[in-house]
Amino acid sequence: xxxxxxxxxxxxxxxxxxxxxxxxxxxxxxxxxxxxxxxxxxxxxxxxxxxxxxxxxxxxxxxxxxxxxxxxxxxxxxxxxxxxxxxxxxxxxxxxxxxxxxxxxxxxxxxxxxxxxxxxxxxxxxxxxxxxxxxxxxxxxxxxxxxxxxxxxxxxxxxxxxxxxxxxxxxxxxxxxxxxxxxxxxxxxxxxxxxxxxxxxxxxxxxxxxxxxxxxxxxxxxxxxxxxxxxxxxxxxxxxxxxxxxxxxxxxxxxxxxxxxxxxxxxxxxxxxxxxxxxxxxxxxxxxxxxxxxxxxxxxxxxxxxxxxxxxxxxxxxxxxxxxxxxxxxxxxxxxxxxxxxxxxxxxxxxxxxxxxxxxxxxxx
Amino acid sequence: xxxxxxxxxxxxxxxxxxxxxxxxxxxxxxxxxxxxxxxxxxxxxxxxxxxxxxxxxxxxxxxxxxxxxxxxxxxxxxxxxxxxxxxxxxxxxxxxxxxxxxxxxxxxxxxxxxxxxxxxxxxxxxxxxxxxxxxxxxxxxxxxxxxxxxxxxxxxxxxxxxxxxxxxxxxxxxxxxxxxxxxxxxxxxxxxxxxxxxxxxxxxxxxxxxxxxxxxxxxxxxxxxxxxxxxxxxxxxxxxxxxxxxxxxxxxxxxxxxxxxxxxxxxxxxxxxxxxxxxxxxxxxxxxxxxxxxxxxxxxxxxxxxxxxxxxxxxxxxxxxxxxxxxxxxxxxxxxxxxxxxxxxxxxxxxxxxxxxxxxxxxxx
Lengths: 365, 365
Hints:
2 copies of one chain form a homodimer. Chain A has 13 helices and 13 strands. By secondary structure, chain A is α/β, with parallel strands linked by helices. Chain A has 2 domains: 2-172, Rossmann fold (3-Layer(aba) Sandwich), CATH 3.40.50; 175-362, Up-down Bundle (Dehydroquinate synthase-like, alpha domain). In chain A, strand 5 (98-103), helix 4 (105-117) and strand 6 (124-128) form a beta-alpha-beta unit. The longest helix of chain A is centred in the middle third of the chain and has 21 residues, at 212-232. The A-B interface holds A 34, 78, 82, 85-86, 89-90, 92, 94-96, 113, 116-121, 142, 144, 147, 149-150, 153-157, 235-236, 319-320, 322, 324-326 and B 34, 78, 82, 85-86, 89-90, 92, 94-96, 113, 116-121, 142, 144, 147, 149-150, 153-157, 235-236, 319-320, 322, 324-326.
């Protein structure tokens, strides 16, 4: 088992990464206030792993109830949030009861927001079952739901007590979702970890082939990168924004295509290319850097072009994103490979050109 | 103008108390990140005071939009929360925009929760227009909405940047609401401030007569008491719970009678008598103390008996309250006048007897 700590003073917490962790109830119990828990999962993950987790918890003397929600980004909404709150109240969950999210990023984000707001905050544990959730969304305390006018617009910061990444759960992960997770893994290399990026360029095929040792290393390294950024800037007043590299474009793709049509990681991959293209157009990256990024994303099986929404629609959707400052778009761009900066000064003409060049609107493929 | 500071490190904020403050836009502007605001008010308060506030803000160069919601405890619900989020998104409010609540406790609690969760937290200013909101709900960062199964069950801690208590707004406050506010004022005397309680016993008729100097003193003293408790225990891991004196019983009254039938302060007054009665039955207060409390509440024009819900219904409603610990009721009781303690050991028979003695179920009036 590998372990990474997110250093947040009295709210620090461990991320455990390894095989068979769903059955290690003691790891969870050690982080609970009282031996009482509600597990929230989804219709895809529950049939595969819910029994294993619940059986282990009950064996350790934990009073457990469960709630299974529909799966998918379109269910990261008010209805799912309300369903969790209703179930907590109907089951008389107390402020000391622990909410456990068993599933991917959607389950973790919605359940985490429900935990943040139930009785003004209850203990929360993340048990992510997708690569994307294990390397990104389960770590760092961002929780929330989507709104028809924008992704993650309603939410809260609420750190988990523990993140338990059981590598066994990746065995059943659909190929497309595994690849989508790699978009966030590659992101860490691009924004702050050149050494990791070089490792990825050597080993990306070992990851798509699900080699256990390679996956364990990539997840640990991703969590170390994210934990360091979160520890330095928990509530995104500065540095943490670099984690949104590719996400302003990506969120527009997700919303514009209709939530759930593009996976989050796929949209981030195409958004990464738009951000890289823009970084090149304002003179920060050279063309070879952009080609290098595109090559790695392609080898990971990820899309490198956004859908044909029309450039105006992209800009409209991006203006509803959270990264606005006095009416200007704040975008995360690459000063060079391995170094991201937040920049509000990119000319609109260049933003438009980058979107056009890296979307199917003007496909030259 | 009197000012009290809530000491919370980098998140400390001032409470200003005085006449004509709605027109002092500079006080608000000084606490905003950017000169952009959305004012949330209700249908009763908006016709009286919204123009005054908006005109002042615009005069100071602030870009202001407004949203007016229905009034009343039954509207402290998901629908109001959603309406605020929808309006913020439709108006392209940014994370740096300030949300201003102009109204009573309901408006402040719902708007505060919307601010806590919009883009994971936006700046928030409280402009309370009822006595209850000025002495209690606007101070300390508790925000939230009700759920059919319990009051304030969904919410967050989100401290305001500023509390602006304009005494002018009390001129139009209905008599019944003024008296309801006095229940929370008296609470501070009972739980931690014997000197203030003695002052109230000398001056309560000056308060019901709305003497300006008396009101200003009572609001300032209440805010000082509350600010000290909040500074010592922001998220209610210990001491802060004493502020809930009378509230477990009171919440049961509010929910049992139907939200809005009893005003919050009225329910707290009757709940105060139940808590005092129970404190007497377990040997903490003597009978003369209980009579002294009843006398002051009566002089303030407040109810001293709960409605006839039936004792079982009271206990059922209280079991859904947030103050549960391993299945036992944690109640705030008085060790003596001026000193409250959280106690989970009161025998159920005594809790039942206290409810029966101080509700209309067994009225002996």
